[in-house]
Amino acid sequence: MPELPEVETIRRDLEKKILNKKIVEVKVIKKKVIKEPDLSEFKKGLEGEKVKEILRKAKVLIFKLRDDKFLIVHLRISGWLLYGEEDPKARVVFKFSDGKFLNYMDPRLLGELRLRKDFKDLKFIKELGPEPFELKEEDFKKIVSSKKTKIKVLLMDQALISGIGNVYAQEALFRAKISPLRESNSLSSEEISFLFKSILEILKEAIKYRGSSVDTYRDIGGREGGMGQRLKVYGRQGEPCFVCKTPIRKITLGGRGTCFCPKCQK
DNA sequence: AATGGGACCTGCGCGC
DNA sequence: TGCGCGCAGGTCCCAT
Question: What domains lie within chain A, and their CATH numbers?
Answer without folding.
Answer: 4-126 (3.20.190.10), 132-260 (1.10.8.50)
